[in-house]
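TEACHING EXERCISE
Course module: macromolecular assemblies
Task: Read the component lines below, then compare them to the predicted structure of the full complex.
Student: A.B.
Group: 4
Components provided:
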Amino acid sequence: MTDVITRTSAASTTIPESTTVPEQAPSTPRLVSPFERLGLRGRALQTANWLGVVAGVYLLITAVNLIGSGFKTATGGSAETLFAFASNPFVALMVGILVTAATQSSSTTTSVTVGLVAGGLPIEIAIPMLLGANIGTTLTNTLVSLGMVRDRVSFRRAFSAATVHDFFNLIAVAIFLPLELAFGLLQRTSAWVADRSAGTDGGLFATVFGGLGDVISAGTKPLSDAVKHGTELVPGAWHGIVMIVIGVALILAVINFLGRLLKALMVGRAATVLHAAIGRGPLSGVASGAAMTVMVQSSSTTTSLMIPLAGSGAFSLRQIYPFTVGANIGTTVTALIAAFAFGGAEAEVALQAAYVHLLFNVYAALVIFGLPVIRELPLRAATWLGGVASVNKLWAAAWVLGVFVLVPALLIVATVVW
Amino acid sequence: MTGEDRAPGVVPPVEEQLEQILREAEARVAELRRQLEQHRLEAAQHAEVDRLAEYLAHATVRWTEVRGFFDEVITELRFPGQPR
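Instructor-supplied answer key:
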């Protein structure tokens, strides 16, 4: 036995692949709440942060309500005319990609879309836009990964971690958009769920859900109406457009504000969730990604923070992948909250739009992540792209500009011109 | 004569016993190495998660870095093959 021990100790020790700290390792040690800048500390700061979150959600719902009212005013009940250019589902998809890429927030796109649907936008046009939001939101972490370009190994890992999200969402759209066009899969299932949760014959759940929605929308209506009356001087359809612009600007500001508050408030809980997920299987990764995204209300934030974790080599691509799938599901909560801006029949269609986003991401997780053959595709594609991009940066540039700017813009222009 | 075709009750030669012990020990060592590697990896992951506040604070696009990246790409396109 001594012999065995001697041989063992003499053998070379296997050391895990060393982790390299990327050049761009963060230097700012902590998150700062906007209220902290006002001099608040301790319990007062905590209270102010939570009150800020409540106010933010209130303003978000009000802004979505404003968009719905503005869209009705602008279109005068013929919303199809205004969005005729997006009646081609591929153009609507590209609109979703471009708007989300420009705002770097799928929550903004989905909330605005929920408002537009409540204001009369046909759900057939809204669905590809919501699918496009999923692709557009992946731009943020891809841009974050470009910051690691100076270290080739870190960049390879980081760019792969970013593009695994791109590939997953592209494959999801490639599967579910044709299914939607052929069978109306998302439209039918979301209508069914919306009817059960907000319809007139949905039972107790719908009654409670609908009642809650009515209370919330009644609370937000006065502010929405005040903005509507305050802008009445603007003539005709422009009045509605001004309301939409104010609503979109408010959503952008509120989501940014909420994001900063929630990061400061939730960092401890988020870390607990991540610690708990370490060493467990991919389902824990999906759950932690979803939980964390619900906490910070931004999939861009959660997927972007995984970039330095992947770049340093501490987390493998295979471990990052389920986390991004969970982030897709977690981010759908914002649209569900936004749907509370409306009551009655408007609530049902708004909720249907929100459910489209939720169901699409749940279906995508079940089909792509659930089937081993398809599950490997985003991993292989991202590994390959990360490899070639780390050798020749032109690949990374072509990917970013092509997927998120050129192809969507060219498709829209081509459809409008022809 | 191997362990399989030996009559019951017959003690295997010392050399065979030692080889068996060696095989078991090596398997155990391999398992311990795997566990140690896993433990080290998870410890590194927990250490990274402890820095979550920093990472969250920086989980935004820094446009100067994006611009720097595209500047590098343009330079590579203009002067291919030159060391940077």
